Amino acid sequence: MVKNRMLIIIGMIVLFHSSIALAQITQPKLNHAELMKQFLGNWQTELGKDTLGTLICKSFYNGFDFYFKIESKEKIIFEEKTLTGYDEKYDKLIKLWVQSEKPEFGLVAVWFSSPKVCEEV
Amino acid sequence: MKACYLTIAIAVFLLFGYNTIQAQTAQTKLNQMELMKQWVGTWKGNIGIDTIFICECKPFNKGFELYLKNEVNGKVVIDWKTLVGYDKKNDKLIEALIFGDNPEMSLFSMWFSSTNKCEEISLEDSASPDKAINKWTFEFKTPDLLIWNELVNNKTIHVYNLNRVK
Question: What predicted TM-score, i.e. pTM, was given to this entire model?
Answer without folding.
Answer: 0.81
